[in-house]
Each structure stands twice: as C-alpha cells, then as structure tokens.
Protein 1
Amino acid sequence: MSLDKVIVVLWVVFWGYWIVSAAGNKKAARGSRRRGYLVRMMIVLTLFLLFRNPETRRFVAYHRISHNPAVRICGAIVCAAGMGFAVWARVHLGRNWGVPMSLREGHELITSGLYRIVRHPIYTGILLAMLGSGFTVTAWWLVAFVFFSGYFHYCAAVEEKEMMRQFPDQYPGYKRKTCGMIVPL
C-alpha cells in the first residue's frame, strides 16, 4: 500500500472513531453550540476563495514537500502519532468532549493523561497529524495546518476563558502545572 493510501486510511479510521465516540457525550450546555460559528464560517469562506484559483488548487494538490521516502515515512509516523495523541486525549476527556468552544452540562475539569502535559492535547494531536500528512502527501495538508493552527489557538483561548470562569479555584493552578496550551513547551 502506498504512503498516500496509508494517510487516507488513517484519516478515515480516525474520523470514524471520532464520530462513533461522540455518541453518549453529555448534552451541550444551553447556548453553547452558537459559539465560534462566525470564526468557522470565516475559515470556510477564506479556504473557498483561496481555492477558487485553479493555479492555487493545482499547486497545493500536486506539490509534494519531499519525494524522499525517508521524509515521507517520517511524515506518516508523525501523522499516526498525532492521531494517537488526539485519541488518547479524547479517551481521557470522556463524555465531556464536544465541538470546539462548546460546553457540556455538568462539565468537569480533566487533568489526567495528556491533560497533565498540555491543556488542549486534542488540538495538538490533530495539528501533528496534519503536519505529518503534509510531509507525506501534498502541500494541501500544510495549508490546512496553518489555518487550523490559527483556528485551534482561537478556540483554546476562548475555552481557557470559560474554564477560568467555571473553575476559578482550580484552573489557575492547573495552567501553572502544564507545559503549554497547545504546544508543550
């Protein structure tokens, strides 16, 4: 199987797991789903306008970052590791998981697993998977990586404000103990 197909299979399995594991989550808190719609719509509109240009589409769709098999294999490994990172974080989040910037009824502060290291490990994992896909398949994944880096940073900042509001006694200490918001530095 080619590395391109390996990446496709990884993403299909990942999103399949993501959809199936969403069943049984806690209900969304009132008014929580409306958050971030404007930002999501701006990203979609920007990508739509960017990719209306046939030259941009062609370049991004067919431009490989590297033809070196070692680089492409490392990219596939980074992609798989990022997905594993996101799934592991998702398992620890449990029924509290929801779309970015949404709140769950009876939300809990999760500090176990990867949440001991970084405060938003699902975002970290998905970004790593996109980065690895970019080095394995096409530059399209690196464009997605750039856009989603900004989007996830925005989401994490909004979520952190909400967590400070919901957990004023616990969250400041938790922030001090972790290595970072998305990048564990």
Note: DSSP finds seven helices and no strands in the chain.
Protein 2
Amino acid sequence: MPSKEYYQALKATQALHATNKRFSGRFLVRYLDDIRALIEQHDVKTLLDVGCGRAVVWRTPLDNGEMLERDLGITSLTLYDPGVPAFAQEPVGRFDMVICTQALGSIPVADLPWMLGRLYGWAKMVVYVGERLGPVRKKIHADLAAAGAMPHEWTREQWKEMLNGTGSGDVAVYLRTSDRRTRESLMARIQ
C-alpha cells in the first residue's frame, strides 16, 4: 500500500509533467545496450517500461525509420508512468521483460518493497533496473529527500540489497548503476 510520501512525490511529478518537458524518457538510451543483450539472451517478445516518462525514445523513429521496439525485436511494448497522463493506465498482465530506468530513485524508500514486488509480479522472465548514483540534479523531491524519505544518495550496495530483499521468484534481476562522481558504470545479475 502506497505511503502518503508516495502520493506527495507522485503529485509533484504530475505537476512537473504538466508544466515542462522534464522526464522525457530520453535517458533510456544509456541502457539500450544492456536491454538489447538481455532481450536476445532471454528471447524477450513482450516488454513493459515502468517509469517511461514521456517515452520520447520509444515514440521517435530511428535513423533507419524503424521504431525502437521493432528494432529490438519486441512484438508488444507497454509504457507505464503514473506521472504522465498518456501512460498512467495501470499495466495488465505479465511481460517477458520489465525495465525501470532512472525511476526508482523517485520512489520513497518505504514504498520501494511494494513497488519492486509489482515489477517482479509483472515480469515473466527478466527485470532490469538502471539507477544513477550520486547527487540528484532534479530537485523535484527535495523536501522528501531532506526528510530522508528518498533513496537519492543510495550506493550500489544499497540498491542491490533492496533488489535482493524483495523476492523476485524465478525472475532474473539485473542492476545497472552509473555513478555521477566516479563515472563507474556496472551491470550485474542480482538474482
């Protein structure tokens, strides 16, 4: 069950989306090499992008004229972001792969277990999480972060512990962290 801090963060995100172009989803490109490799490795055909923002990467044709999901071999793409009206409808069903890139850092710490439970519940085979480490540039949730409610300063080890501690069942879980301070970027299978 979501906390009041979750609804506070969601309201701030919805207000931001209504007034400017942040959270475009463009940072997905940082993770496409990993995602492509996992799609091939696990023969993924259906994909859910949780926290997709405005999904500009999914909705813009590539240089070859193809849409990204077709280029990746995806037959069914579902986009979900409760902060964006166009993608706020709750996903239904299960998907071969669930991705969540640079979105869990906007979820209050107390709500991460149930949110991860949802990600794992939607996934048939693979969950892929990508998070940036280090100082947060967007100050949208600054009040919640100051109160210690947000995972903004979490380390790779803290993310791994959260992903391990939530219980993914038979789903393969992968984590990519990129540290803003050291520029170290690591991906590993967690479960």
Note: The CA atoms of residues 15 and 183 lie 31 Å apart.
